[in-house]
Amino acid sequence: MFVDHAKIFLEAGDGGDGCVSFRREKFVPFGGPDGGDGGRGGHIYLVADPHMTTLLDFKYKPHHKTKRGQHGSGNNCSGRDAEDLYLRVPLGTVVCDEQGNVLTELLEAGQTYLAARGGRGGRGNQHFATPTNKAPRKFEYGEPGEKRTLVLELKIIADVGLVGLPNAGKSTLLASLTAANPKIAPYPFTTVHPNLGVMELDETQRCTLADIPGLIEGAHRGAGLGLRFLRHIERTKLLVHLVAPPDNGEIDDLEHYSYAWNLVNEELAAYSEALVSKPQIVCLTKIDLLPAETVDRIVTFFKDTQGIEILPISAHTGAGLDALRERIRQELTKLGMLSEGTKEKIGITHDPTP
After folding, report:
1. How many CB atoms lie within 10 A of CB 109?
2. Mean pLDDT split into 10-residue runs, the chain, 354 residues
């Protein structure tokens, strides 16, 4: 199950209490105070794990607590610190407080965030001895651990995002370009959560693609599935915008293609200006269902009216996919994510070991 939003309740451990003790040994009549300090309570950390893809674990177990520190004891023995708790979260997790303020973003493998601090241990009576009070019975209780309620939001990390209306062929294209196996069916909203795939550009270069559930009019206000998943393309560097023939069979209606392209861009802009300003590769999909002359008319129409070079492709037959891969390579190179000289890998750039 894909879960990209979770509220968690954290309670770090209390600190151990300090000790009141006096040295009692034969032939040492005035040993003085020797009460040890209490140990620190356990901290709670969030750790970015590249092998996790969902916040599902926190849906079933939202409450997390650590133990308190050990109390101090005599002979100047301090209590043991409690063991810290490390909670693994996916890369791209945004940590917010209850008011929605962003506290941190975990973007790199192994990156940690101290989510709840354990209480400091109390001091024993050895610290309160003075020249005028050589036998103090004063000590400190351990400080309480921090209690926090945090909201976790997952924004997947991908280089390229596939956007378009429902049934535009995004999942089919993802399956054709990568080894991903998303659910594909001939009805709207087949994709109910983002899917990720890695596309090999050559032996040394690759990039990650994200298939976002289809957008409809009013998606930025919560219509359809758009509002919930639009945030997943905020981290992408490049968008592949798919425009498909209408389902009603009026494949020669040029205004449909223009309307579909404008509608998605309007929803992106309404959600965030940063989304609509990202570079786009516009593709005419499912050209295996269109006559060649209709495809030529649509390409010419977009070039004349929008000034856009639309790329005809068919994920079903593979037509145009090599050209699309090359366009993606060129755009990512312009964005500095690919190096033509050194052919650096992209997509998975972090050490997978947390």
Report:
1. 18
2. 86 96 84 93 95 89 96 94 96 92 93 96 94 92 96 88 84 84 56 75 82 64 58 85 85 88 86 85 92 93 90 91 92 77 40 39
pTM of the model: 0.75
Residue pair 229/5 in contact by the 8 Å Cβ criterion: no
> What amino acid occupies position 167?
N
- As given in the structure block, the two tokens for residue 192 are 């109910």
Distances (CA, A) of 349 to 208, 331, 344, 345: 11, 19, 10, 7
> Could you report the per-residue pLDDT of 254-313, keeping only the tens digit for each?
888 998 898 888 888 887 888 888 899 999 999 999 999 999 999 999 999 888 899 999
Q: Whose CA is closest to 199, among 91, 338, 46?
A: 338
Domains belonging to the chain, first-starting first, are: 5-154 (2.70.210.12), 160-334 (3.40.50.300)
Task: Tell me the C-alpha distance between 215 and 220, whole Å.
Answer: 9
In the chain, DSSP assigns E strands to 5-11, 44-49, 63-65, 85-90, 93-96, 102-106, 112-116, 147-154, 160-164, 195-200, 206-211, 238-243, 280-284, 311-312
In angstroms, how far is the first alpha carbon of the chain from the final one?
Answer: 23
CA distance linking residue 295 with residue 289, whole number of Å: 10
